[in-house]
């Protein structure tokens, strides 16, 4: 099953396209199941439905934990490095992690959680977040982790959409020099969340909190009372494992639903092969478990593979910009996986922070989340990998569950800024605007996938129509990724970025509609339009064009400041626009559609070629916006 040479890759890829069911069935055989599947695959991309390994009975946590107990129970499963280097790290062997997960599963059970119930987690990057996730899976409950930087109203939206019964939180969160009041945010959200019965609170910062009688209980006190063994609830491969909310081009974030069996098979398969995993690897992915990268490649895949996964609570620049490299040195990390935005930020701080540490343990580097630019790739390659570590540029999405296009470390070729080649089982195609497949090499088009893979999303929670609409309606019979892509003369894929109204800020997806809705909540705002523009560190920054009430008594500066606060309140600080320009009108077509193309050009500072503006309702508005932008 393991790919170790270029020839293995070619053979596996061919097989995965010629006989996909046979191919995935063989991979699935390597997991532990209580009962095998009745059918390998049943699907339709026309009227979207996908089922992998239906009828198979299992529990993913038995594959992550129990199956390793006999052979490597004392191997380190999880290493946790705290925010402050002064604080002691914590390590869990497979045996210890198994106990912790079982114990907390018992806590959830005694608080009424059963198979299929939804549990929301809003927590810092502490071991209990991973333990909470796995404890849900142990019971067949559906977890929905919400990144702890989202605001209370964003959290409430997600809890309500998922109709969650329990929320897991902490008193506070250490990040760099700052302490955040996690529980206060959750308490505020819960004022509008009638489905929540209990909040289970982990003590982390010893911040002052108020516990609501009958609703709020302490994690540790509950855990003390609970047994350290909990039988796994046996579920079907096609039962849901988790919901993860993500932004799209329209409306509110949608709850992407992943089902347990296919997700397990694909995440482990992709992990071992892309990173060319070895038994003694210490693997570190710097993502937050609040995003898909953390779900698949901090928690599930590394544990499924019986590896050692490192989890870091802090930020790359605390106490200084050498922290990542200090941690690599401390634990002799051999596989390091991060985002281009972090690479660029650290590159800007200078080499003195890198050269203080011994990075010779690193064997494989990885990047994810956004296109990586050549300068960042070179710096990463030369200064972190010392010129001799492969860099896997892994392209994938919340919806795909696992890595889709990437080189395999040292096996298939690297190519700076290219995700390179599809993994076995993945059939990418480039489509033109009319939906025709673009054949041959040296071409560009919209990236679609034409055949299901085991970890493809199954639905969007509570609204299957929306799932069909968002992913399977643009091009009939294909999964549409929303990304533009180039296939070069060697047949290698290079992701060019989103072609829909999604902006990628520091590797985080933001829907334009979502951010505009938040801005429009300000009482003096009449209308707004946001676009992305190239940003040196973040990849893309948000540029907002806002029409405010003429009668507002506030100054421009006051309005800008308040609009930022409004966005923080409704979504979270991560969605704050970099620039806000107050304008008196927006470029609209006669049918009232905002011409974002023009705004994008202005935001980029390039007005040499604004294209045809004659179809605009009021072409004069463009000149005014240009002037306002100082162009
Ligand atoms: C972008 C993150 C270029 C892409 C795993 C995609 C990338 C979106 C890469 C998904 C990459 C992710 N190169 N672009 N290696 N990886 N993207 O759902 O636009 O947070 O559609 O999943 O990030 O973001 P998401």
UniProtKB/TrEMBL annotation:
It holds the Pfam family AMP-binding_C. The keyword DNA damage does not apply. One of its GO terms (molecular function) is ATP binding. One of its GO terms (biological process) is acetyl-CoA biosynthetic process from acetate. Residues 514-593 form the AMP-binding enzyme C-terminal domain. Keywords: Acetylation, ATP-binding, Ligase, Nucleotide-binding. It is an enzyme of class 6 (ligase). Residues 67-452 form the AMP-dependent synthetase/ligase domain. Its EC number is 6.2.1.1. Residues 9-64 form the Acetyl-coenzyme A synthetase N-terminal domain. Gene3D superfamilies: 3.30.300.30, N-terminal domain of ligase-like. Belongs to the ATP-dependent AMP-binding enzyme family. This is Acetate--CoA ligase. It comes from Bernardetia litoralis (strain ATCC 23117 / DSM 6794 / NBRC 15988 / NCIMB 1366 / Fx l1 / Sio-4) (Flexibacter litoralis).
């Amino acid at each position: 099953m393991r790919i170790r040479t270029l020839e293995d890759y070619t053979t596996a890829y061919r097989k995965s396209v010629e006989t996909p069911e046979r191919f995935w069935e063989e991979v699935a055989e390597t997991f532990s199941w209580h009962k095998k599947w009745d059918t390998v695959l049943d699907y339709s991309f026309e009227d979207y439905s996908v089922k992998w390994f239906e009828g198979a009975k299992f529990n993913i946590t038995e594959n992550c934990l129990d199956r390793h107990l006999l052979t490597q129970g004392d191997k380190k499963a999880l290493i946790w490095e705290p925010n402050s280097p002064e604080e002691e790290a914590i390590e869990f062997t497979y045996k210890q992690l198994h106990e912790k997960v079982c114990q907390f599963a018992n806590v959830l059970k005694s608080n009424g959680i059963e198979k299929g119930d939804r549990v929301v987690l809003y927590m810092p990057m502490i071991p209990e977040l991973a333990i909470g996730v796995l404890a849900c899976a142990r019971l067949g409950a559906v977890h929905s982790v919400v990144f702890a930087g989202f605001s209370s109203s964003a959290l409430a939206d997600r809890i309500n959409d998922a109709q969650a019964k329990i929320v897991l939180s902490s008193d506070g969160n250490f990040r760099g020099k700052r302490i955040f009041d996690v529980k206060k945010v959750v308490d505020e959200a819960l004022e509008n969340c009638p489905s929540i019965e209990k909040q289970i609170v982990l003590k982390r910062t010893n911040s002052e909190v108020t516990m609501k009688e009958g609703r709020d209980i302490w994690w540790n006190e509950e855990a003390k009372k609970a047994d350290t063994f909990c039988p796994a609830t046996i579920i079907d491969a096609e039962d849901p494992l988790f919901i993860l909310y993500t932004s799209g081009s329209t409306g509110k974030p949608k709850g992407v639903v992943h089902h347990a069996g296919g997700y397990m098979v694909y995440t482990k398969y992709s992990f071992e092969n892309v990173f060319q995993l070895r038994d003694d690897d210490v693997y570190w992915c710097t993502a937050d478990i609040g995003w898909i990268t953390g779900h698949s490649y901090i928690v599930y895949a590394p544990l499924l593979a019986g590896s050692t996964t490192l989890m870091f609570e802090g930020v790359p620049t605390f106490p200084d910009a050498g922290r990542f490299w200090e941690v690599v040195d401390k634990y002799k990390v051999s596989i390091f996986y991060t985002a281009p935005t972090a690479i660029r930020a650290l590159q800007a701080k200078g080499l003195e922070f890198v050269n203080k540490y011994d990075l010779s343990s690193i064997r494989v580097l990885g990047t994810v989340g956004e296109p990586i630019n050549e300068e960042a790739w070179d710096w990463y390659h030369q200064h972190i990998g010392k010129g001799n570590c492969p860099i896997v540029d892994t392209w994938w999405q919340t919806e795909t569950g696992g890595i889709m296009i990437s080189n395999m470390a040292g096996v298939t070729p690297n190519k700076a800024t290219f995700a390179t080649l599809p993994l076995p089982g993945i059939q990418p195609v480039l489509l033109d605007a009319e939906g025709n497949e673009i054949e041959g090499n040296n071409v560009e088009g919209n990236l679609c996938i034409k055949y299901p893979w085991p970890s493809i999303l199954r639905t969007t929670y509570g609204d299957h129509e929306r799932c069909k609409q968002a992913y399977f309606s643009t091009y009939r019979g294909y999964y549409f990724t929303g990304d533009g892509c180039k296939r070069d003369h060697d047949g290698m894929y290079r992701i060019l970025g989103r072609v829909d109204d999604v902006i990628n800020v520091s590797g985080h997806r933001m829907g334009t509609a979502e951010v505009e809705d938040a801005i429009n909540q300000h009482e003096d705002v009449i209308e707004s339009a946001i676009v992305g523009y190239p940003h040196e560190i973040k990849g893309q920054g948000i540029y907002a064009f806002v029409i405010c009430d003429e009668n507002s008594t506030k100054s421009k500066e006051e309005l800008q400041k308040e609009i930022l606060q409004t966005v923080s309140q409704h979504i979270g600080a991560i969605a704050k626009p970099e620039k806000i320009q107050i304008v008196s009108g927006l470029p609209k077509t006669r049918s009232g559609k905002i011409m974002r193309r023009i705004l994008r050009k202005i935001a980029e500072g390039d007005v040499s070629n604004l294209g045809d503006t004659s179809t605009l309702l009021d072409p004069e508005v463009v000149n005014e916006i240009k002037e306002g932008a100082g162009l």
